[in-house]
Amino acid sequence: MRLAIDRQRFVxxxxxxxxxxxxxxxxxxxxxxxxxxxxxxRDWFRDRMRDAGLDVRVDxxxxxxxxxxxxxxxxxxxxxxxxxxxxxxxxIYDGPLGVLAALEFVETLEDEGITxxxxxxxxxxxxxxxxxxxxxxxxxxxxxxxxSLAEAYETTDRDGIRFVxxxxxxxxxxxxxxxxxxxxDSYLELHIEQGPRLEEAGDDVGVVTGIVGFQWGEITFExxxxxxxxxxxxxxxxxxxxxxxxxxxxxxxxxxxxERTVGTTGVIEAEPGSINIVPGEVRFxxxxxxxxxxxxxxxxxxVKREAAAxxxxxxxxxxxxxxxxxxxxxxxxxxxxxxxxxxxxxxxASQRLVSxxxxxxTHVASVCDAAMVFSVSEGGKSHSPKEYTSWDDCYAxxxxxxxxALDLAGVAAER
Amino acid sequence: MRLAIDRQRFVxxxxxxxxxxxxxxxxxxxxxxxxxxxxxxRDWFRDRMRDAGLDVRVDxxxxxxxxxxxxxxxxxxxxxxxxxxxxxxxxIYDGPLGVLAALEFVETLEDEGITxxxxxxxxxxxxxxxxxxxxxxxxxxxxxxxxSLAEAYETTDRDGIRFVxxxxxxxxxxxxxxxxxxxxDSYLELHIEQGPRLEEAGDDVGVVTGIVGFQWGEITFExxxxxxxxxxxxxxxxxxxxxxxxxxxxxxxxxxxxERTVGTTGVIEAEPGSINIVPGEVRFxxxxxxxxxxxxxxxxxxVKREAAAxxxxxxxxxxxxxxxxxxxxxxxxxxxxxxxxxxxxxxxASQRLVSxxxxxxTHVASVCDAAMVFSVSEGGKSHSPKEYTSWDDCYAxxxxxxxxALDLAGVAAER
Lengths: 415, 415
Prior knowledge:
The structure is a homodimer.
Chain A: H1 7-18, H2 36-51, E1 55-58, E2 64-68, E3 77-82, H3 96-112, E4 115-116, E5 120-124, H4 138-143, H5 149-154, H6 163-169, E6 184-192, H7 197-201, E7 205-211, E8 213-222, E9 226-227, H8 239-252, E10 262-264, E11 268-271, E12 277-278, E13 281-290, H9 293-314, E14 317-326, E15 329-330, H10 333-345, E16 350-355, H11 360-364, E17 369-375, H12 391-409, E18 411-413
Parallel strand pairs in A: 3-5, 3-6, 6-17, 7-16
Antiparallel strand pairs in A: 1-2, 2-5, 4-18, 7-15, 7-17, 8-13, 8-14, 9-12, 10-13, 11-13
């Protein structure tokens, strides 16, 4: 059977959530994980899950689950979801689209009086973004057993505030252990593509076959802070010049490695940060991603060699500290097929693609079979108030998700 | 006659002031202008001036003057001084050495019962460093009529706090107009070299013949903030890559222009500053200095062309905003000669050199004849807790200053 979700309700819900932590005068979100805005979005989502008749539970990491029983209580659960947190100046679709599409699925089951064979759960994962507390995808990682609960709790933000204290403060440190409470059959996650490929091909939805691997690290250069007017050029050990050399190479390395390789420096801090002083210490991040894990390792090796060469040129000390490394993921064929069949059946033009971004599905795929649905991201923009997906494209992706999920959950009875 | 300053008193005073705003466990200062530490240093200096029998006045910019009458009340005044404020992590010599050497001069006159022909004044100029409020050398600039009092008052620090409000808060907004209250004959300023030339030549003191010109500006690149994993390299407009290109050229341009040219990027800020986002906007400073003003202009022209080229490569918008431009200064021969004669007479090995740093003397030289004395800076280090000048070298420079000042002020009577 085909499931017809309620487009108007779904769009209304997307607009409601976009008001919580919304940017002034811009269509975007400032809803950092465990902020007051995150609490407000969570309260709103909890109420919506209860209204939909779901059995709500919150685990020790603040992950929020809403469970709907199936005809076969012994059957593995089908899990759907994403995250409600945002970057400091993020868009309104990234994350929330997948959470509210999951909600729309169970509400439609309720409307239609459908009992699925398998239990169905929807989830809002805590701290997917990793913007305030590193690493990203923290709480799906703890849930899947990849990250340690104790370490996650002790993580601090830039102001030295601990994750666990903020979780407690906003009232979302739950009692349920942060680990699978049931046997899970499969996981589907809808997310915006955050890249240009669907739009450029004119496709409606993306059938995601896996996720690239990546490695994030921080390079520190130490030179000599000194007066910018009185220190001759041949006496300088300028840490920022070393950083500039490496950042130029971070731009170049991907083009020497692979078609899908990307490399980025997103954060840079130069000390002491005075117009009149040669920078004595500079720290900056480097990150590389590729579907092939060996290529990521090679990119990191190359950037380290570039750092060593830059340090030699400028007389600096240098170090590289790995912040996070995640291997690439290949999704399960049966879940990919469920998404592909749903898209084909609903008449959506689609392409298969590998996600360039990490998602909670990265971790969940180690617990059960998984796949993802991508919606179009206009101009490939995300993590920005310019992020945009038309309601038509949101609907197409949510419709695909719902029908793929119904396929996996099976229909036991309908009204 | 030769004047013999009190070495022990002078060293004690240097150590006393170094306790005010001193860094924890390091031999350095955090005494930003108009901070509580600056107030404390000012109170201490005011008391020392009163103890020395000086007539103390504070002007509208917080500049502190201590005046000692001469035999000829109509004669032009000889002014000596420097500044007590520091960089956020500065050394203990930069600035204070020149202020306390001036104090030591008048105390020695008092000890010796010397009446000079000319009146003598010592001064502590407000906000020489320009680290908290730009521009640097702000209050000697207002005093000399180069900068506007109204604009200086409205200047804000990074927290948006106005200069005038902080001046008021620490109790150093004086009533005396910030302009010359007397006819000034000459100005001498002792300062650490902040460069390696004296030490490398094995000289004791520097006879400063002028000050390089410089221009400070800020370059802004605007690109497109976007997800670092999903945005292919050929779709990026990375503002930080543009900045890295230019910073590399800031390092290179001086070597193509002149032996004394220097170029520096001291401050860089990348937005939004997330490990996971391609930087959409980057602002960074560029500064060039040279004894020849045309060379500074050429350096700035070149860096603008580099910015345009980097913007073209990366698809960025760019702008250059001039923050400060100061022309080079040639000091007066008679003042240079007074310093040279004092150094020679006391048996100090010296060299003539052009200051690579701006000093309050830059502005004062537009009011009266001026020159400077440099002390050795070990390793050329300054604006850092590693800044160091031995007490022998401090003494040699203060001794030279005192005897040059006595030469300019003339002896009318002694006990």
